[in-house]
């Protein structure tokens, strides 16, 4: 029983981390129709920004995370303004530019901070554990779950209760009509990139807490699972991504524990294949 509880909570924590990354991907694709392969760069900038502000500026954990989130958000805005904006509706060029930027970002981070993983400054309470139904659960899992819930609620409130949120939702349905009404969709695009960058940067900071270190390629490796989550959940659906992230996290944790090493990652790919065969549009998409 204790193993089941531990695996369930750690699976939810891992799924929460995937959702924080996937939520931004889903928003960006849903409105701007951009498959942003440089999204992992925003995560890495957030992680290194948090690490740098904590170790060099002496910031406590929360201000350090805020610093990292601001750095990741600023990076996302610059990428959208300088590189993505001239390439809207040019899918091949978008893929080439974002893939190239992702590779260049990893190289720049290696040049600045080195290729070796750096020990991440975790707060003392995050290194502790809590006993639940006989299972000893690391506290950082609860931090991830709580952050994911807050981000999900914040995105839903933004989409449903704010003017820009309504523009985003309308743009997802019919971008041409929104533009014809005289609404500046480009500003909405930039705002969505900023939100996605902030969520990814927060994921980077919390990934440092989860793994205990930060490395230049961390964002790229996590981005693979985030893309799987987005596809399973349905392209452009934040709620679908949340459900898919929970499924992916739980499946990966349980299969990794009860099966051989490496089966957890393979089971996620198998889950992706099963969902796409049953519902090509994803869980929140239209059935075939």
UniProtKB/TrEMBL annotation:
Which Pfam families does UniProt cross-reference here?
BPD_transp_2
Record InterPro entries? ABC_transp_permease, BCAA_transport_permease
Cell compartments where the protein resides:
Cell membrane
Which ranges does the record mark as transmembrane? 6-27, 34-52, 64-83, 95-115, 142-159, 187-211, 223-250, 257-278
Per the record, membrane topology reads: Multi-pass membrane protein
**Alphabetic keyword roster:** Amino-acid transport, Cell membrane, Membrane, Transmembrane, Transmembrane helix, Transport
What does the similarity note say? Belongs to the binding-protein-dependent transport system permease family. LivHM subfamily.
| PANTHER family the record matches | ABC TRANSPORTER ATP-BINDING PROTEIN (PTHR11795:SF442), BRANCHED-CHAIN AMINO ACID TRANSPORT SYSTEM PERMEASE PROTEIN LIVH (PTHR11795)
- Return the protein name: Branched-chain amino acid ABC transporter permease
């Amino acid at each position: 029983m204790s193993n089941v509880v531990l695996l369930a909570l750690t699976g939810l924590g891992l799924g929460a981390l995937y959702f924080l990354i996937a939520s931004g991907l889903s928003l960006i694709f849903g409105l701007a129709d951009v498959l942003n392969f440089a999204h992992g760069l925003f995560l890495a900038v957030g992680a290194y920004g948090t690490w740098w502000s904590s170790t060099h500026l002496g910031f406590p954990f929360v201000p350090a995370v805020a610093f990292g989130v601001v750095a990741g958000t600023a990076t996302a805005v610059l990428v959208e303004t300088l590189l993505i904006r001239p390439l809207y509706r040019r899918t091949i060029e978008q893929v080439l530019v974002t893939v190239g930027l992702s590779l260049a970002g990893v190289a720049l981070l290696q040049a600045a901070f080195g290729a070796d993983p750096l020990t991440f400054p975790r707060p003392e309470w995050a290194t502790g554990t809590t006993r639940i139904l006989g299972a000893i659960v690391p506290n950082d899992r609860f931090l991830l779950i709580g952050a994911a819930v807050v981000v999900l609620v914040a995105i839903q409130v933004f989409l449903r209760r704010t003017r820009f949120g309504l523009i985003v939702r309308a743009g997802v349905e019919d971008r041409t009509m929104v533009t014809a009404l005289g609404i500046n969709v480009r500003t909405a695009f930039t705002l969505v990139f900023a939100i996605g960058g902030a969520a990814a940067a927060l994921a980077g900071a919390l990934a440092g807490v989860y793994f205990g270190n930060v490395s230049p390629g961390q964002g790229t490796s996590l981005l693979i699972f985030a893309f799987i989550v987005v596809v399973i959940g349905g392209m452009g659906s934040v709620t679908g991504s949340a459900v898919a992230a929970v499924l992916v996290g739980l499946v990966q944790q349980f299969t990794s524990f009860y099966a051989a090493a490496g089966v957890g990652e393979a089971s996620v790919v198998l889950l992706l294949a099963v969902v796409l065969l049953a519902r090509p549009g994803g869980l929140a998409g239209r059935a075939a």
